[in-house]
Write a structure and sequence with these properties.
- This protein has 246 residues and is mostly helical.
- The protein folds into two domains: 26-131, no CATH class; 134-188 and 196-246, no CATH class.
- It is built from twelve helices and two strands, in the order H-H-H-E-H-H-E-H-H-H-H-H-H-H.
- It has a two-stranded parallel ribbon.
- Helix 6 (121-129) runs antiparallel to helix 7.
- The radius of gyration is 19 Å and the shape is globular.
- The two termini are 36 Å apart.
- Residues 1-25 are annotated as: Disordered.
Length: 246
């Protein structure tokens, strides 16, 4: 598959930017959650989430405390931002993994699986952040950063540009050469893995600072680049704080 190079022309209008990586097309809780923000439907659900899990799978993989918390959150088939923000990074990751297994690993056809609806764009972004790369400190920084982004279009561009810079390091992408050791061994991208996320983020901040200052950028794009620059500065700050406390 093709990954958008970070060396591609940075001055092409961001307004027409397409997602730079091919996303995993498999059903997953985080992927579907992003498309279910306050979606209303006249169709009645055959099973609600907790009842479905009790009938077809179980909560047995969770600790008693986790089961109590997750049952309570899932009781109305809705996630609210307050509920998800009350959880730690580790708990949100555990909840996402649990629902991937309990719902989409149940063997039941997709049209009979109940939906967990979301009331805020930040919720899907928080779940996505927990699995974005193999670097937990970086994922935690993304997790905290997306909670500061309120606009949906800004959130979409943030993930799009972050993914473009991460390349193969974005685990949401289906890349055989990365995921198969034998194929990776023969790949021309021998040095694809990011070893220093501090330098990685310094490079992104520098890139967007230069874009904002470039006189050939349209005013419309400059405003969006400025928002993204602010987001990446927050990401950089969050990562530095997490590293200093680890």
């Amino acid at each position: 598959m093709e990954i958008l190079s970070t060396n591609s022309n940075p001055y092409s209008t961001i307004s027409s930017s397409q997602t730079s990586t091919t996303q995993n097309s498999n059903n997953s809780f985080a992927t579907l959650l992003n498309t279910q923000i306050e979606e209303t439907t006249e169709k009645k659900e055959t099973f609600r989430v907790v009842a479905f899990i009790d009938k077809y799978t179980s909560f047995s993989s969770l600790s008693p405390t986790e089961e109590r918390i997750f049952r309570d959150i899932l009781a109305d088939d809705y996630f609210t931002l307050a509920e998800i923000q009350s959880l730690s990074f580790e708990q949100v990751k555990k909840l996402g993994d649990f629902l991937d297994s309990a719902l989409y690993g149940s063997g039941i056809s997709a049209d009979k699986i109940p939906l967990v609806k979301s009331t805020d764009i930040k919720i899907g972004a928080m779940f996505t952040a927990t699995k974005m790369t193999d670097n937990e400190d970086f994922n935690k920084a993304v997790f905290e950063t997306v909670q500061t982004i309120d606009e949906q279009i800004e959130m979409l561009y943030f993930f799009d540009r972050l993914s473009a810079n991460l390349g193969w390091n974005d685990k949401r992408c289906l890349i055989p050469q990365r995921d198969n050791p034998e194929l990776r061994k023969n790949s021309t991208k021998e040095n694809w893995e990011i070893s220093d996320y501090k330098k990685f983020m310094e490079a992104i901040v520098k890139e967007y600072y230069e874009l904002v200052k470039n006189p050939v950028i349209s005013e419309e794009d400059r405003k969006l680049y400025q928002k993204l620059l602010n987001d990446f500065i927050i990401l950089q700050k969050k990562h530095n704080e997490i590293k200093s406390n680890s």
